[in-house]
Inverse folding.
């Protein structure tokens, strides 16, 4: 009895795992106590069976309704022919069969129940193939909606972050240049303080000016009284370096200041003199 009881207690967990396997696979870890991955194949088979049931039942009702309409039209035509209201043309017995085939296509392709049945079967086949390829997946429609939601959420977060950054930076103004020593960065020739981030100026990028070449060290943020700025340390290099990533740039005028700059969260600087 103990073994039977254990087996019976596993049935609800297996059924729940099969249902949960419909959700996108990236969420399956939330249900670690359920045999979700093990039940994907069963879930796909059940989905296909449901799709077949929906199709057969819907076809039965739809085709019989279409056949009734076709028979009524045939009887009406025959009655009008007998009364002389219609020309005595021979009745084609193939008409009902053609009408029935058209009804099958019409139900499958142009009714909500037919489209639902087709989707259930096709999604089950796709999930079965994924199980065979050892890459189980949830319901394709739910997975697509989940991916779209993630994409829209990430886009909204990037937009909010960009707007918050622009508010912190203030107006877009020209770059400012200081000596590295004046900014508290010994060993650095210059620092470029920019009001907007430069996407092409990542660490190790070579900046080519009219006279010299410079390598960009790791950029960092500094807070000034007039807003947050991105600081790009530049160190002079020889012109024999291999150009893996380079940008051309016209150095702005050299200014005094701005005081010690660092990459810490409380990094500050004073306005240029």
């Amino acid at each position: 009895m103990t073994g039977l009881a254990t087996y019976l207690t596993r049935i609800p967990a297996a059924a729940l795992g099969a249902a949960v396997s419909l959700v996108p696979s990236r969420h399956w870890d939330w249900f670690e106590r359920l045999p979700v991955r093990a039940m994907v194949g069963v879930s796909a088979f059940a989905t296909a069976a449901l799709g077949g049931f929906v199709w057969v039942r819907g076809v039965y009702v739809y085709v019989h309704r279409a056949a009734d309409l076709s028979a009524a039209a045939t009887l009406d035509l025959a009655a009008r022919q007998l009364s002389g209201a219609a020309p005595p043309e021979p009745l084609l017995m193939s008409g009902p069969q053609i009408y029935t085939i058209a009804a099958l296509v019409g139900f499958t392709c142009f009714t909500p129940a037919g489209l639902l049945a087709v989707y259930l079967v096709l999604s089950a086949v796709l999930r079965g193939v994924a199980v065979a390829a050892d890459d189980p997946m949830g319901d394709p429609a739910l997975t697509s909606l989940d991916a779209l939601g993630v994409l829209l959420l990430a886009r909204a977060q990037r937009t909010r972050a960009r707007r918050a950054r622009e508010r912190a930076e203030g107006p877009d103004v020209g770059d400012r240049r200081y000596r590295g020593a004046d900014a508290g960065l010994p060993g650095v020739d210059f620092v470029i303080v920019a009001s907007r981030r430069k996407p092409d100026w990542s660490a190790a990028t070579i900046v080519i000016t009219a006279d010299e070449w410079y390598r960009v060290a790791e950029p960092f943020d500094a807070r000034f009284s007039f807003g947050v700025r991105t600081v790009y340390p530049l160190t002079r290099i020889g012109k024999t370096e291999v150009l893996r990533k380079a940008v051309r740039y016209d150095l702005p005028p050299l200014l005094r200041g701005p005081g010690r700059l660092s990459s810490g969260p409380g990094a500050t600087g004073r306005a240029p003199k």
In short: Residues 40-83 form the longest helix (44 residues). The radius of gyration is 36 Å. The longest strand covers residues 227-237. The chain has two domains: 2-138, 176-269.
